[in-house]
Design brief:
- The structure holds two protein chains of two kinds.
- Chain A is an alpha/beta fold.
- Helices cover 25% and strands 30% of the residues of chain A.
- In chain B, 37% of the residues lie in helices and 19% in strands.
- Among the domains of chain B are: 9-116, Rossmann fold, CATH 3.40.50.20; 145-209, Dna Ligase, domain 1 (2-Layer Sandwich); 405-527, Carbamoyl Phosphate Synthetase, Chain A, domain 4; 561-666, Rossmann fold, CATH 3.40.50; 697-749, Dna Ligase, domain 1, CATH 3.30.1490.20; 764-893, ATP-grasp fold, B domain (D-amino Acid Aminotransferase, Chain A, domain 1, 2-Layer Sandwich), CATH 3.30.470.20; 932-1067, Methylglyoxal synthase-like domain (Rossmann fold, 3-Layer(aba) Sandwich), CATH 3.40.50.
- The chains are: A alpha/beta, B alpha/beta.
Chain lengths: 393, 1085
């Protein structure tokens, strides 16, 4: 039995505000900079590691025991990992779960993720909460505090950067993977699930085109399992190209970083609205807002976790949601064409919008969960109704 | 949806006495509910029979009825108070069952009372197995294969379907009472019969066994608009097969992937919706097959529970409080999260630490009981600990358990490396059969070289847990190898502390002392920080000062202000002899300090309690009660005073050590506490004051004991010193008994001397609670015991005011109390036990024991008199005089209050129930009336001893009481009872002209009394024992009585009182009255 905690080398995390944490290296060696953020999910570290929206970020898990159930080949949200670094309090000595195929540290090494373990993660979280998300650096090579703080200060901010380019696909792709048994069982309670095995021809399925800005795979899985033909296109595809695919609806995915600099996407979405039903999640939600003339702003430290309450203003019901965003749609100067449908219960920020005249709606959070609760699956049903209405028209 | 305006007055039912399966957690939830409802402007009516609760304080509800918890009595309360609604989900299984009975008997309909939160239909759907199973199948969830049966024949048919091993669960019992696993057909028949007897509806469930599966619990809340959230997930360390109340449990779930967790969450939401719990909390239990992931639903409790109390303490989310607010109409998102203030209660807490709960058992009190852990709960208390890692929280919990372990090994009780070191066979046996000490045998297994895989195979405990324990053993071996404190480098030492190793444990490994390790690590600047429990993993600022220690870099305790800080040390896990009574005192101490403008700081490790509600004190430290942990807190908060008087023996045991480390103990000095414990010192003090004590002596070995016995004479009372609750205390009538019991006492004494007293036969025992401020001493209550001296004071019934003692005797008692208080310089509470014996020259008052601290009777005295005794004592300790507080005279109420004890015998089949000097009760009830007889009748009813109105009574008195049998028989005859007796007694009664039916002794064949019991043909047993033990004829009869639910009275005094009570209930209606009314009447005098 190897004990990664005891045999690993010292490593440090430095923040731009001058705070330095000494811990032990976990996974790969080297040095990496990124925006330091925290996620409050107690489960789902593998989904978080593979979520492209974390591109450019060093993610701290607030739950201290990580790696308990290992990693497997199912709980994957994208090939590879996109995050810059991973910070935890304690890595489990062994994974214990019948689904486990490898340990967390092996996985990190395999994917060349720089990790840090053993630090007072709660004090780091409190730091971020009070100062705001800031740039940081993890290093196994340079352990000099002054040098590290200088590097953290010099690291580029996420604001104004197009990180989508790093994680979006470079070509169009057909998607046929279904939900795994875990999600399918739950969905089957409330909705019709269509299996590939049912043998329905593509031509008989509604067609969804997904603009992929760094999409989590559980989204197209949901779309597929609801009976659609799913085509994925890069996030910089033009409206004309998309409309040429004759979609019954367009889906706008999540993705990393600031939505503001993605002018190409604003333009495309602006051209799609009114022509075809549009559904957006997370970055997709922000892009719809920007395309309609709204503004976005950077939150102090964002919302990242699987316990985020959202109030549906129409039903007055609360959904517990998964969230992962550092930017949000601004209430100020919200254009008349948009209506707020959901609000974050904790800070009252906008969590969902819809277009007053076109078939367009979007949420800031993640109805596909993975990791997280399934309370918001109904949004896929809602989109499905628009798709089938469009397809039969 | 705001609060309901159509409701004005709400009835709440408490859970009654502390019993196994139902403890302080319902005082915690009930108190929260009362506070929450009153905060919203509702009038709250409360019924609970347990005086030792915060919930039954007159200030907690608008009308407080300390009355027996039967539906008939509650109906009287309803008739009198006419509440609009009944909230049945906050008083445990007891409240739920009474609510169901009120509904079934048409009471709720008759008085127009609405059941809120969960109605009768919902409760039945959750609790009745067939309905529940059907509901689960409807929503596509797997359940155990099982069948509900009402007879043995049906059970046998069911067994053919499920196969052995099979689980037998009686319906509608609390704490899984009567549940067990049958491995063969004989056991199966016995368990089914037992289960049918225990179930109030004569129904048991026969189920497939899922022993060895992983067990989980989910705490779920729902509002009336169908918003549902999960508050906490809990994973059991012990696999399926051990009742969750007896399992070590860990929060949050540790070994589930998000996919598995979300599946369980989806299922939990589906269950609460399908069952239809309208509002409030529910607990849902799941089992997961570890190799395939198959998940089944075990059961759901449509109410707050022990687990929800644990979940509240584990997360900081006040489930009971929120449940109460949801019941009156609010939606989750309309209620604030108290801790963050800015966010709402509608979210799912996320925690950034690990919580471990470990149960505490009391098998040493019931040596004849089966100590195997099964699906029926047997533990009497629990401790919880919080750490940043599993290892840290687990080791903290072990030391919080207060069983002599200071972590996972190397403690003084550790058998490894001693003569008692268990061999491999014993280890394997102890691993495969779960028992209260299994966790220590896991250690022995690891020390002996057994692998994690092997231990897993024997225990089914997940390897994740075992691997972390193995790591602790590896570290221990490494440190033991180093052999000296100096050789452990700073980083290693810090690592050990981060993994929860106690100073004491490190001292044991390095041949040093706890204080040496402490000063060494302080010199290395290795000290704990204190972090907040905040429901949100620091995402938001926390305003609730609820802390735990850990070895990290940043502390979160606010700096000291101008306000004085006084720390109260709590009582730790419940055990027999130390339970809710002390928690009640600690809470009152906190309230009193706040009234004085002093910051109150609570330290305790018991998750069930009101004291560990973050709302009770200005700061709460959820920590083990050990010298190390308390000193660490003192370092951090610099208290101006520490109170050790209120938490029972636990804080007293720490007092000397704390004082030596410079901690300011307030109130009665540590020297005085020791003087009262020191026999020789105490004896000279008694002589000096001209008081009397039974002849007594101390023996350090058998030889000395014999010498003392000769001097003192028989009967003699033998007991080990420094032991609580009369452990191994026995009365010896002759030399042979003396030899045997003294030998046992030396074993229990564990190196300490054995105490020998002359036992005063047929004396009346009296308890006195008094407060002294150093100048004045005011008596708060004089309690006359019903049972004669010799029955442990915690087990006997007692009465305020005294019912038979003459005024001169009371004057002597008062005088002795004042003298002792003055001589000992008591500041705060004091309890004295007296014995009054009629001697040739009249009644004589003897002093049995003086305890300069809060006693178990403090809450009873407070409820009987309406005087907040513990609060007054606290203010005195904080420097006020009794005169300043206006406390100058002894309160003597106009009504009669009787405290009766409640025993766990039904959980321990076959145990002899005879009362003795060793305390075995778990809880207490109180009966109040204008007259003694009715108060006694109420106390018996409340304790579950249903005195019959007609039928047969079995009478069997020991030789010592043969003279009394005729009078007793006559009284019973006059009341219309048929008498049964064995030969000797029967003859005596016949000779006196009293009709009696003679029954055979067990050895004489049939029909004997056991046959009558089995045929439900005897309603009461009056048996004063001449012998003790489960093997005697009498013992068998008494145990059989318990198993058949036939009350059994074992002292003559109680038998007399019972006769008076039975007469009283024929002559008049049992009245109910609120405490508030009774106090008002008393004050008019």
């Amino acid at each position: 039995m190897t004990d990664s905690n005891n045999h690993s080398r010292p490593a440090k995390l430095a923040l731009a505000d001058g705070t330095v944490y000494l811990g032990r290296s976990l996974g790969a060696s080297g040095e990496v900079t990124g925006e330091v953020v925290f996620n409050t999910s107690m489960t789902g570290y593998q989904e978080i590691l593979t979520d492209p929206s974390y591109c450019g970020q060093i993610v701290t898990m607030t739950y201290p025991e990580i790696g308990n159930y290992g990693v497997n080949s199912i709980d994957v949200e994208r090939h590879g990992t996109a995050l810059a670094g991973f910070v935890i309090r304690n890595e489990s000595r062994i994974p214990s779960n019948y689904r486990s195929e490898a340990s967390l540290s092996d996985y990190l090494r395999e994917h060349n993720v720089l990790g840090l373990a053993g630090i007072d993660t709660r004090s780091l979280v409190r730091r971020i909460r009070s100062v705001g998300a800031m740039q940081g650096v993890i290093s196994t090579e340079d352990l000099d505090d002054d040098s590290l703080v200088a590097k953290a200060k010099a690291a580029p901010s996420l604001v104004g950067r197009d990180l989508v380019q790093k994680v979006m696909p470079n070509q169009q792709e057909k998607w046929t993977t279904e939900l795994d048994e875990w999600s399918a069982t739950e969905c089957a309670r409330g909705a019709k699930i269509v299996s590939n095995a049912d043998g329905i021809e593509d031509s008989d399925r509604p067609h969804v085109v997904c603009m992929d800005f760094g999409m989590k795979w559980n989204i197209p899985r949901h779309l597929r399992s609801r009976g659609n033909r799913v085509t994925i296109v890069p996030g910089n595809t033009s409206a004309e190209e998309i409309l040429n695919l004759q979609p019954d609806g367009v889906f706008l995915s999540n993705g990393p970083g600031d939505p503001e600099p993605l002018a190409y996407a604003h333009q495309t979405i602006g051209e799609l609205i009114g022509k075809v039903p549009v559904f957006g999640i997370c970055l997709g939600h922000q892009l719809i807002a920007l395309a309609c003339g709204a503004k976005t702003f950077k939150l102090k430290f964002g919302h990242r976790g699987a316990n985020q309450p959202v109030l549906n203003l129409a039903t007055e019901k609360v959904e517990i949601t998964t969230q992962n965003h550092g930017f949000a749609v601004d209430d100020q100067d919200l254009p008349d064409c948009l209506e707020v449908t959901h609000r974050h219960l904790n800070d009252n920020t906008i969590a969902g919008i819809r277009h007053r005249t076109a078939d367009v709606f979007a949420v800031q959070y993640h109805p596909e969960a993975a990791a997280g609760p399934h309370d918001s699956h109904y949004l896929f049903e809602q989109f499905q109704r628009q798709l089938t209405a469009g397809a039969s028209a | 949806m705001p609060r309901r305006e159509d409701l004005k007055k709400i009835l709440l039912i408490g859970s009654g006495p502390i019993v196994i399966g139902q403890a302080c957690e319902f005082d915690y939830s009930g108190t929260q509910a009362c506070k929450a409802l009153r905060e919203e402007g509702y009038e709250v009516v409360l019924v609970n029979s347990n005086p030792a609760t915060i919930m039954t304080d007159p200030a907690t509800a608008d009308a407080t009825y300390i009355e027996p918890l039967t539906w008939q009595v509650v109906e009287k309360v309803i008739a009198k108070e006419r509440p609009d609604a009944l909230l049945p989900t906050l008083g445990g299984q007891t409240a739920l069952n009474i609510a169901m009975e009120l509904d079934a008997n048409g009471v709720l309909e008759k008085y127009g009372v609405e059941m809120i939160a969960a109605n009768a239909k919902v409760i039945a759907k959750a609790e009745e197995r067939d309905q529940f199973k059907e509901a689960m199948e409807k929503i596509g969830l797997d359940v155990c294969t099982g069948f509900t049966v009402n007879s043995l024949a049906e059970a046998r048919a069911a067994l053919a379907e499920v196969g052995l091993p099979a689980v037998v669960r009686p319906s509608f019992t609390m704490g899984g009472s009567g549940s067990a696993i049958a491995y063969n057909k004989d056991d199966f028949d016995a368990l089914v019969q037992n289960g049918l007897d225990q179930s109030p509806v004569t129904e048991v469930l026969i189920e497939e066994s899922i022993i060895g599966w992983k067990e989980y619990e989910m705490e779920v809340m729902r509002d009336r608009d169908d918003n549902v959230v999960v508050i906490c997930s809990i994973e059991n360390f012990d696999a399926m097969g051990v009742h969750t109340g007896d399992s070590i449990t860990v929060a949050p779930a540790q070994t589930l992937t998000d996919k598995e967790y979300q599946r369980m969450r989806d299922a939990s939401l589906a269950v609460i919706r399908e069952i239809g719990v309208e509002t409030g909390g529910s607990n849902i239990q799941f089992a997961i097959q570890p190799d395939t992931g198959r998940m089944i639903v075990i059961e759901m409790n449509p109410r707050v529970s022990r687990s929800s109390a644990l979940a509240s303490k584990a997360t900081g989310f006040p489930i009971a409080k929120i449940a109460a607010k949801l019941a009156i109409g609010y939606r989750l998102w309309e209620l604030p999260n108290d801790i963050t203030q800015k966010t709402k209660a509608c979210f799912e807490p996320t925690i950034d630490y690990v919580v471990t709960k470990i149960p505490r058992f009391a098998f040493e009190k019931f040596p004849e009981a089966d100590a195997t852990l099964t699906t029926q709960m047997k533990s009497v208390g629990e401790t919880m600990a919080i750490g940043r890692t599993f290892q840290e929280s687990f080791q903290k919990a072990l030391r919080g358990l207060e069983v002599g372990a200071f972590g996972f090994g190397s403690d003084p009780k550790d058998k490894w490396g001693t003569d008692e070191q268990p061999d491999r066979d014993e280890i394997r046996a102890k691993l495969s059969t779960p028992g209260s000490e299994r966790v220590f045998y896991i250690r022995y297994a690891m020390k002996s070289g057994m692998s994690v895989a092997d231990i897993h195979a024997l225990t089914h405990i997940d390897e994740w847990f075992l691997e972390h324990l193995m790591h602790l053993i590896e570290l221990e071996n490494e440190i033991t190898e180093l052999g000296s404190l100096d050789k452990i480098d700073t980083e290693k030492l810090r690592d050990l502390k981060r993994r929860g190793f106690s100073d004491r444990h490190i001292a044991a490994m390095t041949g040093t002392t706890e204080l040496q390790v402490r000063s060494h690590r302080l010199s290395e600047n290795i000290r704990p920080v204190f972090k907040s429990v905040d429901t949100c993993a620091a995402e938001f600022e926390a305003f609730t000062p609820y802390f735990y220690s850990t070895y990290e870099s940043e502390s979160e305790v606010p700096p000291k202000t101008d306000k004085k800080r006084i720390m109260i040390l709590g009582g730790g896990p419940n055990r027999i002899g130390q339970g809710i009574e002390f928690d009640y005192c600690c809470c009152h101490a906190s309230f009193a300090l706040q009234e004085l403008g002093i910051e109150s700081i609570m330290v305790n490790s018991n998750p069930e309690t009101v004291s560990t509600d973050y709302d009770t004190s200005d700061m709460l430290f959820f920590e083990p009660l050990t010298i190390e942990d308390v000193l660490n807190i003192c370092d951090e908060i610099q208290p101006d005073g520490v109170i050790v008087q209120f938490g029972g023996q636990t804080p007293l045991n720490l007092a000397r050590g704390l004082q030596q480390s410079g901690v300011p103990i307030i109130g009665t000095s540590v020297d005085t506490i020791d003087a009262a414990e020191d026999r020789e010192l105490f004896q000279s003090l008694i002589n000096e004051l001209g008081l009397r004590q039974p002849p007594s002596g101390i023996a350090r070995n058998m030889e000395e004991a014999r010498v003392e016995a000769k001097r003192i004479g028989f009967p003699a009372l033998v007991r080990p010193s420094f032991v609580l609750g009369g452990r191994a205390m026995e009365i010896c009538y002759d030399r042979a008994q003396f030899e045997r019991y003294v030998a046992e006492a030396f074993i229990v004494a564990d190196g300490q001397p054995v105490l020998i007293d002359r036992f005063l036969e047929d004396a009346t025992e009296v308890d006195v609670d008094a407060i002294s401020d150093g100048t004045d001493c005011v008596i708060m209550g004089i309690m006359e015991h019903i049972e004669e001296a010799g029955v442990h004071s915690g087990d006997s019934a007692c009465c305020i005011p005294p019912f038979s003692l003459p005024q001169p005797v009371l004057a002597d008692i008062r005088d002795a109390t004042r003298k002792l208080a003055a001589r000992l310089n008591v500041i705060g509470l004091m309890n004295i036990q007296f014995a009054v014996k009629i001697e040739a020259d009249g009644p004589q008052v003897y002093i049995l024991e003086v305890n300069p601290r809060a006693s178990r009777t403090v809450p009873f005295v407070a409820k009987a008199t309406g005087v907040p005794v513990a609060g007054i004592a606290t203010k005195v300790m904080a420097g006020k005089t009794l005169a300043e507080l206006g406390i100058t005279t002894e309160p003597i109420p106009r009504h009669v209050s009787i405290k009766e004890s409640v025993f766990p015998f039904r959980k321990f089949a076959g145990v002899d129930i005879v009362l003795g000097p060793e305390m075995r009760s778990t809880g207490e009830v109180m009966g109040i009336s204008q007259v003694f007889s009715m108060a006694f009748a109420k106390s018996q009813l409340a304790a579950g001893t249903v005195l019959p109105e007609s039928g047969k009574i079995f009478l069997s008195l020991s030789a010592r009481h043969k003279d009394d049998v005729v009078e007793l028989g006559k009284s019973l005859n006059e009341l219309g009872f048929e008498l049964l007796a064995t030969e000797g007694t029967a003859q005596r009664l016949s000779e006196a002209g009293i009709a009696v039916t003679q029954v055979k002794k067990i050895a004489e064949g049939h029909p004997n009394l056991i046959d009558y019991l089995k045929n439900d043909d005897v309603q009461l047993i009056l048996n004063t024992p001449s012998g003790k033990g489960a093997r005697t004829d009498e013992g068998k009869i008494r145990a059989a009585g318990v198993q058949h639910g036939v009350p059994c009275i074992t002292t003559l005094a109680a038998a007399d009182a019972a006769v008076r009570a039975m007469r009283a209930v024929r002559e008049r209606e049992m009245e109910v009255e609120s405490l508030q009314q009774r106090y008002a009447l008393s004050n008019q005098s």
